[in-house]
Amino acid sequence: MAINNPIAAPHTHSGLSTTNIMYLVVLALSPAALYGVWIFGLPAALVIVSCCISAWLSEVICLQLQGKNWLSSIDGSSLLTALLLAMSLPASTPWWVASFGCIFAIVIGKHVYGGLGHNPFNPAMLGRVMLLICFPIELTNWQAISIPSVGPDGLIFSQQWLGIDGVSSATPLADLNQIVEWKGLLFGEHAGSLGETSALFIALGGLFLIWRGIIRPYIPCALLLGLTIPAIIAHWLHPQDFASGLAHLLSGGAMLAAFFIATDLVTSPTSPRGQILFGAGCGFLIWLIRSFGSYPEGVAFAVLIMNAGTPVIDHYLRPKIFGSQSLFKRSKGA
């Protein structure tokens, strides 16, 4: 008698593939990236293009060395890594520095561990930390904004916008205590990395991802609360020494981390309780590094530290297996 092989039960499917998810995240991040090019000019565009090309070429070479089809390089994962790294860099970063960071992120941060889905750390943040350690001067040279003006003959682009001449400026994170104008932070009217330009565009992109079901709100909400609550308490106790919660929330890469970096599906916990703990830990570490550390920004370090704790969080806060506990309890007399 023939025995039929068991088959999987029918399941509903969201219709989203890995490729769809990657390109939807890229789409959500695109308005903030384009706005960064608008206010910083062609140098910002050069950083983004350099990152994308070097990341894709690195992906193709790694796939070929592993005997895999190079067409897998167009799944969007390398493009997203490149865009996230570019958004965390100053617009004045030399193109070769940005390219080197992307090569490191793809080769060391991703393929050394086995490729997509196997990397324990966020590749973009790994590349960002490496560049900060190896090229501290290039990564702390913040270009001042240069928004094109409107003249009688159309748009007027300055030499700085065209990349002919550059003017450096201080990022708001250099002195958080001096931040008083929240509108400038919200609309990106200050120097900083491409991902610090507009908290509004980044937040709108994040809300789009939540609406599409790509990410869940646990990590973004927990991270922003984990950053804001200690900042509010410290500012209330010692306002002369600690910046306000609003300054921490809208400056630096807090919004980018909350919606696009910490929510990485590979390097973050899977359970709701685990995601809440992970996000709160990221937010609190960002505040600690900003307030007491040697670096003004702590997003990359905080995310990598919590990435290392993701397996432990998943182990202790994983959901209960269905049927592991009885639905009925016997009474003492039974």
Order of helix and strand elements from N to C terminus: HHHHHEEHHHHHHH
Q: Would you tell me the overall average pLDDT?
A: 83
Distance between the termini: 46 Å
Q: What oligomeric arrangement do these chains adopt?
A: single chain
Count of strand segments: 2
Number of helices: 12
Low-confidence stretches: 1-5
Strand content: under 5%
Outline = globular
- Report the sheet with the most strands, covering strand number, pairing sense and barrel closure: 2 strands, antiparallel
Overall structural class, as computed from helix and strand content, comes to mainly alpha
Tags for this model:
single chain; 334 residues; mainly alpha; 2 domains; two-stranded antiparallel ribbon; 2 strands; 52% helix; 2% strand; globular; disordered N terminus; electron transport; RnfD_bac; membrane
Give a topology summary:
Blueprint: H1 18-40, H2 42-65, H3 77-87, H4 95-107, H5 123-134, E1 149-151, E2 154-156, H6 182-186, H7 199-211, H8 218-237, H9 245-250, H10 254-261, H11 272-292, H12 299-316
Antiparallel strand pairs: 1-2
